[in-house]
Each structure stands twice: as C-alpha cells, then as structure tokens.
Write a structure and sequence with these properties.
about 575 residues; alpha+beta; 7-stranded antiparallel beta sheet; Band_41_domain; cell adhesion; FERM_2
C-alpha cells in the first residue's frame, strides 16, 4: 500500500534540527542531533512482562509524539512540561520534549516559552523501571542510535510514527547566556538531570546529594511561581546574568604578560609503580604547563627529582569533602602509554588552585590565561555546594511530604540508605543553594554536571589496528581517548590540537586519524557505523571554530564539509 511520506522525512536530519530551532528562536542548534532510543536487550526474553509493562506505561503517558503525528499532547507526571511529558512505550524512558516537533505543534504556533519551564518527576515507579546502563559498554551502546546528519530521515528508515529523541550531542555549549537562552538552559538542565538519575554518568555520594538539593530547589521554584519565572523581569535576568558571568570560563581566554609560578608542598604518589611506599612529600613548582618536584624547598634551585609536562594529560578529581580528601589524578602521555601520578592537596583552596592549573595545562594553557581565576572560583563554588551545614531545627521543620527522594536520587544510593536518611541529607545540602534563583540553580546544576570526571566523553566500542580485543574509543570536545573496556582507564590520549587530518576507509569501515610527530591511530567501530564517529570528530572541529565576535549565522556548508564524509 502506498502512502505519502511527510516532507520532513525527506530532509537531512541536521536540517530538521536547524529548522525546528530556528522556528522557536533557540540559539546554537548545531549542538544537537536526533537519536534513536536504545532498548534494554534483557527485555527481549520477557515479551509477556514487557507487553504488560507497556500497557501500564501507556496509562500514565498518553499518546506518543512521533514523526507525522498531527497533535501534541501534554500529560502530567514523569517528565516535565519542559520536556513534553511522553514516554517510550517499550521501556518507559522519557522522550525528549522536542521529539514532538515533527507534528503541527502548538509550540510552534503558540508560546515556545513552555520549553523553559520544569516540573518535578512525580512517578518513582516508572523511574525505577527505566533502562539504566550497567557498564561502560552499555553506555557505549546507547550511542549506536545517533542519526546521520547528512542523510534524510527516510534514507535512515525512520518511519512516520517512530519516536525520536532530540539531544545535545556535542558537549560544547557555546555562549550560554541566561538572558537569551532560557529554553536552551532548561533543556540542558533536563538532559543533565536524567543522565545523573539514570546513572549514565558517575558521581560521588556527596555530589549526588548536591544534585538532589539543586533539583529539589528547582522543583520548588517551578511549582510555586512558574508564571513569574516564565516572565522574568529584565532586571532579574540582568542580575542573574551578572552573577553568572563570574563563573563563565571562555573557550579562548586572554593572557597576561606576567609569568605565574605556584610553589607549595604536595604529596605525590605513583599507584602503578612497583613499590609499597605511599604518598611522598615534595616541594612542587608549577610553571607554564609543567610541574617540577624537589625533595625540599632548599633544593628547588637544582635539578628536580621529577618533572611532568601536563600538556595533553587527563586530569581527574578524587575528592571527598567530609573525609577531607583532595586528590588530583593525572594521566600523562608518554611514549609507551600513560604515566599515572596522584597529587594530594591539604585543603580546598590549595586543591582549587592546583586543579585549575592542571586543567589549563592539559589544554596547553598556563596560569597567565584569563580563565585561570574563573576556573579556581568555579571549583571552589562546586566544593562549597557539597558542604553539609545541618541545622536540626530547620531540617525537622522541613521534612514533609513535598520531598520524594526516590525522584531525586539515583537507585544506587536509594539502596544504600533509608528514605528518611536521604531526605535529611538533601535538606542539609539544600541550605547551600536555598537562596538561588531558578535560572541560577539550573546553571549551577549544569556547571556541576560539567565538573564530573566522565562529563563530555562519548564512548564507542572499537577494535584498534594491531589489537586483539575490543576496547573503547572516547570522543570529547578536544581529544580522542583509547580506554580499557573493563576498567574505563585511559590507555592513551590524543589532542585534536595536534591532529593533522582524519579519514575513513568506507570499504572496511576503518577510521584513521593522523597527528603530529607521525602518530597514526586506526580503529574499526564494531557496533556502530563508522560514519557516526567521523561525524563526532568533524562536529567538534566545526564547533571549535566558533567565536563570540562572529556573526551568529550558522555555516551549514562548512558543517556538512566536516561531517558528511562526502568527497
């Protein structure tokens, strides 16, 4: 039987995203893409239970919004109005709000500001049944569903009634401004919230309580005064904008002419070295992008016992506020792989300065960069939000039925503590954020998400040339990472700043990337089309060319040139 395919199914996937965001005046649509929803493979053997679960889910969700549907439905419950509360009929996971845009949406005709409003999760039962990746390999399999931006939906066998997700694909959020980006900020808040609740990204117990407190705060403000926050006065937005500008870390910070040097006693540890010794104290000097370690301050004018150039290294925090643990884990590229070094700081202030310096050095920047002080303040702010300052009287008064920890905390911690204990800890953490406005709380949530060690890395299962087993290739906004599939340890890192070119052998589906110093990396993606990986690399290169002084019009031709793979 013949039927007419909607015109949008004939358009390029990327053009669909651009046209929708242009219609509701959202900036930087190039950061998003369409994703097919992943399925929990374990449910294939449970068809009867799955069908029963589907019926239960449909009772809560209402009709799905899919390409070609004529109306947009709004149903209360699991997902926020911001995200258009609809659920996947197979596994109950929330569908993106903007997956509904294919139809003649009321959003495109009425007030798109509804996409800037957030509502709390109110159905812990469905949340408990939603698909959660159990390993890094599971997380990698989620990325099999990214659509090809340079092919039409019809070419990719997207059916008229198939639900798609609209997600931030590239973790490089340019010029995020509360004055202009209320919808964009809220979409990021929702995506980061679900990533944490579904354990798609790891966080510590203290960080989880901080995220729960911020989520609880956003929920309260959204329910109490959603209309007021939808129509914020220019004065309020200006105040929030001014406050958040202090936290902004620009991609291209300026430099001062002063050469900054940091010198302090630090404890240093080499975990993979064959020794029973633990941390050893050194007098450390941080200059430019290198750390020199001396046995004592008096010997600092001589030859260092150890010297590390951090350019291109991996920097990972290892912090426990209550335990007063402030560690910095460094994976430094060397000829044979990665050299692992741990630095232990005495306190938050010392940690913030050294962590900021390490992060900048990994990008080839120094403490003279204008973003250094902003990075320090951002780290201190992140740590401060994790402090617990219990006021028993306030907490006792606030423990009411308006807080449901099952909707605020990931399953891992729900299994570890009783609900009453979690509620008390959330309220303790809430005291650190209680004075924030709605937009500031969302921004803080996003910034805290960006501070997590695993943030911004998209994983794919790969087999490297010369290798015998499956490994992982991680793609971030500035680097490629070869990773151990079982431990998630970084084996080797390559920076895009050192990349000369990349290409794909379409016949054997092999991606080859060439770097400076005759370094050549080749791999085959075993469970995803190599075009997806090619597009990620090209997409990040394209995003790196953006600058604030440029015209905001999108260079679609350049995007396709870098991502399509066309000759």
């Amino acid at each position: 039987m013949l039927f007419k395919i909607p015109e949008r199914l004939k358009m390029f996937s990327f053009y669909n995203v651009i046209s929708y965001f242009t219609s509701i005046d959202i900036r930087h649509p190039e950061e998003l893409s369409l994703l097919r929803k992943s399925r929990d493979s374990t449910k294939k053997k449970k068809k009867k239970l799955d069908d029963q679960y589907e019926d239960e889910t449909l009772e809560l969700e209402g009709p799905l919004i899919t390409p070609g549907s004529g109306n947009v439905y709004s149903s209360p419950g699991l997902y926020s109005k911001t995200m258009t509360p609809t659920y996947d009929s197979h596994d109950g996971s929330p569908l993106s709000p903007t997956s509904a845009w294919f139809g003649d949406s009321a959003l495109s005709e009425g007030n798109p500001g509804i996409l800037a409003v957030s509502q709390p999760i109110t159905s812990p039962e469905i949340l408990a049944k939603m698909y959660k990746p159990q390993s890094l390999l599971d997380k990698a399999k989620i990325n099999q569903g990214w659509l090809d931006s340079s092919r039409s939906l019809m070419e990719q066998e997207v059916k008229e009634n198939e639900a798609l997700l609209l997600r931030f694909k590239y973790y490089s959020f340019f010029d995020l401004n509360p004055k202009y980006d209320a919808i964009r900020i809220n979409q990021l808040y929702e995506q980061s919230k679900w990533a944490i609740l579904l354990e798609e990204i790891e966080c510590t117990e203290e960080e989880m309580m901080m995220f729960a407190a911020l989520q609880y705060h956003v929920n309260k403000l959204s329910i109490m005064s959603s209309e007021n926050h939808l129509n914020n006065s220019d004065k309020e937005v200006d105040e929030v904008d001014a406050a958040l500008s202090d936290l902004e870390i620009t991609l291209e910070g300026g430099k001062t002419s002063t050469i900054l040097v940091r010198t302090e006693n630090l404890l240093l540890y080499r975990p993979k070295k064959l020794t029973l010794k633990g941390y050893k104290q050194y007098w450390c000097t941080f200059k430019d992008t290198s750390i020199s370690c001396f046995k004592s301050k008096e010997e600092s004018n001589g030859t260092p016992a150890h010297q590390m150039n951090l350019r291109g290294c991996e920097v990972t925090p290892d912090v426990n506020i209550s335990g007063q643990k402030f560690n910095i884990k460094l994976l430094i590229p060397v000829a044979e792989g990665m050299n692992e070094i741990w630095l232990r700081c005495d306190n938050e202030k010392q940690y913030a300065h050294w962590m900021a310096a390490c992060r900048l050095a990994s990008k080839g920047k120094t403490m003279a960069d204008s973003s250094y002080n902003l990075e320090v303040q951002n780290i201190l702010s992140f740590l401060k939000m994790q402090h617990l300052n219990p006021d028993p009287q306030i907490i006792t008064e606030q423990i009411t039925t308006d807080i449901n920890p099952e909707c605020l905390v990931s399953p891992r911690y729900l299994k570890k503590y009783k609900n009453k204990q979690i509620t008390a800890r959330i309220l303790e953490a809430h005291q650190n954020v209680a004075q924030m406005s709605l937009i500031e709380a969302k921004m803080r949530f996003i910034q805290a998400w960006q501070s997590l060690p695993e943030f911004g890395i998209t994983h794919f299962i790969a087999r490297f040339q010369g290798g015998k087993k499956e490994e992982l290739i991680g793609i971030a906004y500035n680097r490629l990472i070869r990773m151990d599939a079982s431990t998630s340890d970084a084996i080797k890192t390559w920076r895009f700043s050192n990349m000369k070119q990349w290409n794909v052998n379409w016949e054997i589906k092999m991606v080859t990337v060439e770097f400076a110093d005759d370094v050549r990396v080749s791999f085959i993606c075993t469970e995803v089309d190599c075009k997806v990986v090619h597009e990620f690399i090209g997409g990040y290169i394209f995003l790196s060319t953006r600058a604030k002084d440029q015209n905001e019009s999108l260079d679609e031709e350049m995007f396709y040139k870098l991502t399509s793979g066309w000759v």
